[in-house]
Amino acid sequence: MGYVGEIFVMAMTAIFINNFVLAKFLGLCPYLGVSKKLDSAFGMGMAVIFVMTLASAITFLIRSYLLLEYELGYLQTIAFILTIAALVQFVEMVIQKNAPALYKSLGVFLPLITTNCAVLGVAILNTEAKLSSGSDYRFIDAVLNGFFSGIGFTVVLLAMAGIRERLELVDIPKSMRGMPIALILAGIMALAFYGFMGFKI
């Protein structure tokens, strides 16, 4: 299999098979909190894609050329969290300046990307991940994995938001409105995505 084939496998794995939200159960807070409206879900998805991609690039470089070089591997988690926090602060300032309505609709969930375990998870998993050929991730592989993982997060966030918007038009029992029906939907979507695990790529 050529390198393009390996990238395709990486994309399908990150988006469908090992989706961070529905297979690894990381990033559930924004998944459930921002999935009420499609526009805010799309904005959050774009922010997460940007942060995941940049975080994957920067944390890979920090680990390779600073932490491993000076035998500071035990500081990896702290270094990664500080990097992600700085990136989220940057994204927050850009959105606040250029899209105030989106900034207001995202509310508290935008700063919560800092503690979104999916972003930290992709950064940490890049350090020990291997290509289908068995070789360790290089810089470009880590960046692509972060990008595809962000797309996977956005896909399930948009799917959930679309379903929840449709459910606003349905007569749901009062006790099931809001978070109860969202949790049931999340479980059903996780079962649906679980079917992708049977694929051999």
Can you describe this structure?
69% of the residues lie in helices and 0% in strands. It has eight helices and no strands.
What's the structural blueprint in terms of helices and strands?
Elements: H1 3-17, H2 28-33, H3 38-67, H4 76-98, H5 100-106, H6 117-128, H7 139-167, H8 179-194
Helix pairs in contact: 1-7, 3-4, 3-6, 3-7, 4-5, 4-6, 6-7, 7-8
Primary descriptors:
single chain; 201 residues; mainly alpha; 8 helices
Précis, in short:
This protein is mostly helical. The chain contains 8 helices and no strands.
Task: State the shape.
Answer: globular
Number of helices: 8
Sheet-strand content, in percent, reads under 5%
The computed structural class is: mainly alpha
- Structure summary, number of beta strands: 0
Ranges where pLDDT stays below 50 over 5 or more residues in a row are: none
